[in-house]
């Protein structure tokens, strides 16, 4: 059984307008997505701004009201608050938020910020709590002085470490990491990512890792889902996505990874321009008349792609032959 199983998840936000403030339409932030996360692995959820990644992440931790579909945790649907309570789900599943400055209370000292989940879920003595917070600071590489300081006194990278310390305080089984390094310099990014991998090995944590950048996700994730306008356009192993991408949107995201290697910069630029041209010419083929992705079609054991009906037929016929 997978640790997390998401089935046809939809989160629609109502749009109200007019004199009576009636619901006239809805934003389909997440519009029917399904994927599984295996225990101890890192699952990447990647897409451009507004594609519905944070909404998905918040639904998984129980912070977003789900319109329809289910999210199973060890086989139990946690979209129901009753089930979350019964499972002690909010203790086992934590989130690292996208914006470290606004997610850390500016009026609270670091000690209180990191201790908050402990106070909510574990009944520790003052002394035990202090020891736990000190150990967490040590794990994320911050000094004891941090205890009595406030979030604004830290750099972006340090704040992200504080967010991580808070997220791992209760020894969670699953962490939803929403763009944990996007606001950081490249050198600090690598530090935080290595650190996340280290605590994963140490504590056996499972991650849902959200990012807009396929470059960041590359060395973190076992499997990846590419999200576009509330739907998934491609799902596969790391090898499927990086070496055999089939959807034009995935190819475009891959071409957008910044090239650090100076020798190949020009070549990379050429390739990006070429993909952009193909995208402009052919992208309409990959979306239905409402501009939305087609249903996913299985192209190999792990790899599924939202192919247009004509191309999808080739794969379903192949399956019949087998
Ligand atoms: N509370 C809300 N009410 C109405 N619309 C919302 C709400 N939250 C998000 N949306 C809309 O849902 C869509 C998806 O938003 P979401 O924050 O999940 O995107 P994202 O992929 O995380 O983007 P980013 O990379 O910018 O963080 C967007 O169009 C957004 O405007
Ligand atoms: Mg987001």
UniProtKB/TrEMBL annotation:
Asked whether the UniProt record includes Nucleotide-binding among its keywords, one would answer yes
GO BP field: peptide transport; protein transport; transmembrane transport
Q: Which InterPro entries match?
A: AAA+_ATPase (IPR003593), ABC_transp_ATP-bind (IPR050319), ABC_transporter-like_ATP-bd (IPR003439), ABC_transporter-like_CS (IPR017871), Oligopep_ABC_C (IPR013563), P-loop_NTPase (IPR027417)
**Which is an annotated GO molecular function term of this record?**
ATP binding
Q: Pfam families recorded for this chain?
A: ABC_tran (PF00005), oligo_HPY (PF08352)
Instruction: Please give the SMART domains that the UniProt record associates with this protein.
Output: AAA
Q: Which UniProt keywords apply?
A: ATP-binding, Nucleotide-binding, Peptide transport, Protein transport, Transport
> What are the residue boundaries of the ABC transporter domain, all occurrences included?
15-254
The residue stretches assigned to a coiled coil in this entry are none
To which protein family does this belong? Answer: Belongs to the ABC transporter superfamily.
Name of this protein:
ABC-type dipeptide/oligopeptide/nickel transport system, ATPase component
**UniProt organism field:** Oenococcus oeni (strain ATCC BAA-331 / PSU-1)
């Amino acid at each position: 059984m997978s640790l997390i199983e998401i089935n046809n998840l939809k989160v629609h936000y109502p749009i109200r307008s007019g004199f009576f403030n009636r619901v006239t339409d809805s934003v389909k932030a997440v519009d029917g997505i399904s994927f599984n996360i295996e225990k101890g692995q890192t699952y990447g959820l990647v897409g451009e701004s507004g594609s519905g990644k944070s909404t998905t992440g918040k639904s998984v931790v129980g912070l977003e009201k789900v319109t329809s579909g289910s999210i199973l945790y060890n086989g139990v649907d946690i979209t129901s608050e009753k089930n979350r309570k019964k499972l002690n789900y909010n203790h086992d599943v934590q989130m690292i938020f996208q914006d470290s400055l606004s997610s850390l209370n500016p009026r609270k000292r670091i000690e209180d910020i990191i201790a908050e989940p402990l106070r909510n879920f574990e009944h520790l003595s003052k002394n035990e709590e202090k020891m736990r917070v000190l150990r967490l600071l040590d794990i994320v590489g911050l000094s004891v002085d941090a205890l009595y300081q406030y979030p604004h006194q830290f750099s972006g990278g340090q704040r992200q470490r504080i967010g991580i310390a808070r997220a791992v305080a209760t020894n969670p089984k699953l962490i939803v990491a929403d763009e944990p390094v996007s606001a950081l310099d490249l050198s600090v990014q690598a530090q935080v990512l290595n650190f996340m991998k280290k605590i994963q090995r140490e504590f056996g944590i499972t991650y849902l890792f959200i990012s807009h950048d396929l470059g960041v996700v590359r060395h973190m994730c076992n499997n990846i889902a590419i999200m576009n306008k509330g739907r998934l356009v491609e799902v596969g192993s790391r090898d499927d996505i990086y070496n055999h991408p089939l959807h034009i949107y995935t190819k475009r995201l891959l071409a957008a990874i910044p090239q650090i290697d100076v020798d190949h910069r020009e070549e990379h630029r050429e390739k990006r321009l070429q993909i952009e041209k193909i995208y402009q010419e052919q992208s309409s083929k990959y979306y239905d008349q409402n501009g939305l992705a087609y249903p996913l079609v299985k192209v190999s054991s792990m790899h599924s792609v939202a192919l247009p009906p004509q191309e999808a037929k080739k794969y379903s016929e192949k399956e019949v032959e087998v």
